[in-house]
Amino acid sequence: MGKALKQIKKDIAPAIKTAFQKGLKTGADIQRAEDAKHLMTLLEGLESVPGIGTKTAEKIRTYLKIK
User: Which keywords accompany this UniProt record (predicted)?
Assistant: First the structure.
């Protein structure tokens, strides 16, 4: 991080910092939910990938659910 950016961050009012952090957290939560939906869509269609059968698809799903 450059000196100019550090100075800008230092001069930001506390109310703006709080609002920024709240927005950042909200955005991160929304993105996390969207990522989970996308992952579930990919996992549902595993059998359509060449070389992955029913058994392998179930092994992958089980592994990802545990982690």
Answer: DNA damage, DNA repair
DSSP label at residue 49: S
C-alpha pair distances (Å), 39 with each of 23, 46, 48, 63: 24, 11, 15, 13
**H or E segment at 51?**
none
Decide if 36 is inside a domain.
yes
At 53, the amino acid letter reads G
Domains: count for the chain: 1
Tokens read off for 61: 């799903």
Question: Hey, is 39 helix, strand or coil?
Answer: helix
3-17 pLDDT, tens digit per residue, is 776 777 777 778 888
